[in-house]
Amino acid sequence: MIKFLDLKKINQPFEIDFKQKMEQFLEGGWYILGNEVSLFENSFAKYCGVKHCIGVGNGLDALVLILKAYIRLGKLEIRDEVIVPSNTYIATVLAILEADLVPVLVEPKLETFNINPDLIESNISVKTKAIMPVHLYGQLAEMDKINAIAEKHSLLVIEDAAQAHGAEGFRGQNSVKAYSFYPGKNLGALGDAGAITTNDDGLADVLFSLRNYGSKVKYENEIIGVNSRLDELQAAFLNVKLPALDKENNSRREIAKRYLSEIKNDKIVLPFWDNSRNHVFHLFVIRTANRNNLKEYLFENGIETMIHYPIPPHKQKALNEWNSLSFPIAEKIHEEVLSIPINGTLTETEINKIITTLNNY
Question: Which domains does the chain have, with CATH numbers?
Answer without folding.
Answer: 7-106+114-243 (3.40.640.10), 245-359 (3.90.1150.10)
